[in-house]
Write a structure and sequence with these properties.
Elements (H helix, E strand, L loop, with lengths): L56 H4 L17 E4 L11 E2 L1 H7 L9 E4 L9 E4 L1 E2 L1 H9 L3 E4 L1
Parallel strand pairs: 1-3, 2-4, 3-5, 4-6
Length: 149
Amino acid sequence: MSSLSTLQNVAGSRTDSFRKGRGRGTGNGKTAGKGMKGQGAHAHTKANGFEGGQTPIARRLPKFGVRKTHKGRKTIYAIVNLDRLNRFEDGTTVNAALLIEKGLIKEEFDGLKVLGKGTLERKLVVEAKAFSAKAKEAIEALGGEAKVL
């Protein structure tokens, strides 16, 4: 019967690592396992996505999504839906700072946008950079105010 205190590795499953390039007497000196000349033998050239003259996969595949390579290229909004605003009391002024404090959004990004998913049951004053048409209509239908900053 074996126990945790008697466990051992299987023979040959763990070997010491070679110290590459430490002289010929070590059995791994001179070229340090990299062979003679050629791209793989030289420093820092093996990675970099080079595929032997073939177009690299990163250039063959199409690009999707928002890539933040050019600052100011696209406005990125923090979004919140109407049904999430029901947790506030009537008459509350809801803005990005309040939503971050309550944990409804993590960051403001380029501004706050209110979308019309769900139903709003409170009369609120909502301050945001942008509103969807449905959201603005729903806020004003209850006597609230949709302020565009």
